[in-house]
Specification:
By secondary structure, this protein is of the alpha+beta class. It has helices at 5-13, 19-32, 96-101, 103-119; strands at residues 37-41, 44-49, 51-56, 64-68, 89-93.
Length: 120
């Protein structure tokens, strides 16, 4: 898993009640496909391949909030991606248990995003 030192530093300095859960979601995304990269955009870790996929919104303190900029275009049969906006979808994780329960769904969404980027 390749991490970005800027994101490492950001996460090291972050004070958040669900910091461990944020780190695990980050790791799941980066390990799902080695083509995924990360940077700091919009105030949190943003994951990309070709274009931006999702951002961990760290201002939310009651759950891990993963904001998918173009989530409506990602095929998701699991129901992980929630919302009815034209483009945006979100995934929420309220506990480490929920992160682990939804891990395979998150991996599938990342793999689908990468597949879509490579098809363009």
């Amino acid at each position: 898993m390749q991490t970005n030192p800027k994101v490492d530093e950001f996460m090291d300095e972050l004070e958040h009640p669900l910091k461990e859960e944020l780190q695990v979601v980050r790791r799941i995304i980066l390990e799902a496909n080695p083509k995924m990269t990360e940077d700091i955009k919009w105030g949190g870790p943003t994951f990309s391949y070709g274009k931006n996929m999702a951002t961990l919104t760290v201002r939310t303190k009651k759950f891990v909030h993963l904001f998918f900029q173009e989530g409506a275009s990602i095929k998701d049969n699991s129901g992980l991606l929630d919302g009815d906006a034209e483009h945006v979808r979100v995934a929420r994780f309220h506990s480490m248990e929920e992160v682990e329960e939804k891990k395979d769904d998150l991996v599938a969404v990342v793999e689908e995003f990468v597949r879509m980027q490579e098809a363009e």
